[in-house]
């Protein structure tokens, strides 16, 4: 499924303050300025150690999710509050014991968690870096129910500190850093599909690392059913080739959890669902390009017909899979048909 969001944003901005849907970076030389730079929070920063303060913030505000990484040069006491019916996950990258939330130490294998509408206190050491994810409550609960097949009522963490393991924590930080780096490199505002995909990807990561409760263990489908699920997924993608289908939509369509879908694809094809489904669409686009003639559509037309609306990303994925640019495929097809036509007239 594609998780559709209502028009009100995560931070409920006014019309003039609608999210830009692109990564924004800023630097502050005052702790209060740093506190104000983070959108949608009610917070106050007190600097506790001497020296000139420098803070950095890289932030991506999506429809109903906020992802950011914050760096601060000096020891701070922070009074923080996220808006109601939202949840904050704070993932420090600093050594064990260098941060506290409501007087509890955030261990090296742990992250911080707080629901919205409740004030909490952070104590962060000098040279601190922390990733943050804020997600609307209704979006999180809907994703959990429809994609992970988990009911979150009365199952969310009831403590400020959640242990997830050092390796999982490092993996989560790496994925969030990559997300922000890619967004900053792209520069352009993200499309609706890209935003939905990113939000689903971040939520999946939170479940994968154990920041949120997993569903009950269910019996895996039989081999025949696993093959059937993969076939149904392929047929659904081909029937909707003009738009990219993501994993949440498939989970809803096929009535399976994300974990079950991944298991089926790994067992039958040896690859992740998203990888296979993207390859199916790329192969379809390649066939259309190979069958092109002088009067055929452009590379952009073919890409759009297969749900690739970001042309440069399509070209990158195409070249990675086939070892050539889509424009080269089109050119070769047109030249080949021209030579065939010349041969036909000559004989």
TrEMBL record:
Pfam families: HTH_18. The lineage of its organism: Bacteria, Pseudomonadati, Pseudomonadota, Betaproteobacteria, Burkholderiales. SUPFAM superfamilies: Homeodomain-like. SMART domains: HTH_ARAC. InterPro entries: AraC_XylS_family_regulators, Homeodomain-like_sf, HTH_AraC. This is Helix-turn-helix domain-containing protein. Keywords: DNA-binding, Transcription, Transcription regulation. Residues 231-332 form the HTH araC/xylS-type domain. It comes from the Bacteria. GO terms for molecular function: DNA-binding transcription factor activity; sequence-specific DNA binding. The keyword DNA-binding applies. It comes from Paraburkholderia elongata.
